[in-house]
Write the structure tokens for this entry.
Amino acid sequence: MKIRNYTRVERRDAFLKENAKGVSIRVAISEEDGAQTLTMSIFELDPDGYTPLHEHSHEHAVFVLRGSGKMIDGKKEHILSKDDVVFVPANQKHQIKNTGDSVLTLINVVPICK
Amino acid sequence: MKIRNYTRVERRDAFLKENAKGVSIRVAISEEDGAQTLTMSIFELDPDGYTPLHEHSHEHAVFVLRGSGKMIDGKKEHILSKDDVVFVPANQKHQIKNTGDSVLTLINVVPICK
């Protein structure tokens, strides 16, 4: 069992700068902790930050810890608020933008099924 | 893509009453949402609530949203505080107790690898 406060996990840039802005990641659970079937990361988006519009073959679960923003699926925009849960299916285009005045903090969980 | 505030998800008893007390669950992401490789649930433990001491073959990731408590692995006790991330390996005994005066709220993610 491994317990640590996410605020003490190293924070680093999450995406290449060409297609994202002001997004950092803290990888809180990964293979390094012995996890074989999931990762849990905390993303922080600056007030004007956004992720790339991207897609991947794994599903993921997102939880909005604090802040406000929107999730874009390539067509529609969905408002994100504190305590929202988001399910992103496999191969679904998605982009997250911070629309508020404070940091948008998200928990992101990805299952790793081999 | 599916987005909803966890507070609007139906809340029900999480465990049998014989070996747990005051624990409810809101299943926020499951097969019903099209998820094939994970579930995300929110657990709420009343101030004197506790889960059973139990184990299972899947790993899980826990995030402490609010409140305080302890995680027991069958031998040692570990303090749980807001913003803590917990990795519970497969087949690791674990029990959670609320040690505070308010509700202990936890996000629980379980990967489902078939």
Notes: The mean pLDDT of chain B is 94. Chain B touches chain A at residues 1-7, 9, 28-29, 33-38, 40, 42, 58-61, 63, 65, 71, 73, 78, 80-81, 83-90, 92, 94, 107, 109, 111-114 (CB under 8 Å). Strands of chain B lie at 2-5, 12-13, 21-29, 38-50, 60-66, 69-72, 77-80, 84-88, 95-98, 104-111.
